[in-house]
Amino acid sequence: MRSWGGKIIVGLLGMLVGGPIGLIVGVLVGHFLDRGVERVRTFNPFRPYAPGEKEALQDALFSAVFSIMGHLAKADGRVSEQEIGQAEAAMTRMQLDAEQRRRAQEAFRRGKADDFPLDGTVAEFRQQVRHRRHLVVVFLEMLLQTALADGDLHAEEERILYRVAAGLGVPEAQFRQILNMILAQARFGGAGAGGGAGGAADASRPSLSQAYQVLGVAESASDQEVKKAYRKLMSENHPDKLAARGVPEEMIRMATEKTAEISKAYEMIKESRGFR
Q1: Which one in 1, 20, 49, 59 has a CA-CA gap of 20 to 30 Å to 154?
Q2: What is the dihedral of CA 241, 247, 252, 258, to 10 degrees?
Q3: Is the model's pLDDT at 180 over the cut of 90?
Q4: Are 233 and 247 in contact (CB under 8 A)?
Q5: In the structure, how many helices (H) and strands (E) does the chain have?
Q6: d(Cα 62, Cα 195) in Å, to the nearest integer?
Q7: Which residue in 206, 205, 209 sits closest to 196, CA to CA?
Q8: In angstroms, what is the C-alpha Rg of the chain?
Q9: What residues contact 96, with CB distance under 8 A and at least 6 apart?
Q10: Contact predicate 221/250, CB 8 Å
Q11: What is the C-alpha separation between 113 and 151, in angstroms, rounded?
Q12: pLDDT single digits (tens) 184-241
């Protein structure tokens, strides 16, 4: 039901000041005020959930993520044991129980089908998510993390991901920014996974350039800009905030893994610049 408060209040004020003409002008002004209030209420990411809405959103997110994971795995024509292992690893990292794992596996199989309706699945998810854009970002980040689990992003996987982003209404420039940051975080974490002595250890150490990419800032950024980027990323991925925004607990475990890499990158930059 649309709000009428602005029309009534401003309309009455207009009538008191300008008579019938003032009433008409006041109602028009009130109409635009009501539309503004309605727009803010509709697109407020912290708007309280209606009964059952949060659970429905979480189910939609869960189903869409794993079915599109299956579609990504089939992108090169066949699903390899490695790709199946990546999906199973994601389920393990999310600490799914037996029933959740069964549902995830079923969704993954649906995504592998030759007639999987990718565009329809994305459109349905977008309709369910609507104004809660933060869920769209979490959704895309999870798909990117899965696609990059083997250390590389194949051309067909990238094409599918851009198609998904476009279907969700995410501008190409914004998706490219998300992609670059996830790529940097994956490479930064992978670079630190090597071992060995001497030169081998040095070669595996993440670079300062990679650290800046993880935070999404240029190496020429000021200390204040670096701090601001770090605080923003840590705030966006705080478990309590993700939970309040409707991200399922199981997905929060996976979505917040990157905070360790963000902190590690920030510490490296701080050390190089000598600030606290």
Answers
A1: 59
A2: -70
A3: no
A4: no
A5: 14, 0
A6: 36
A7: 205
A8: 23
A9: 104, 250
A10: no
A11: 25
A12: 877 777 655 444 434 444 445 778 888 998 898 999 999 999 999 999 988 888 778 7
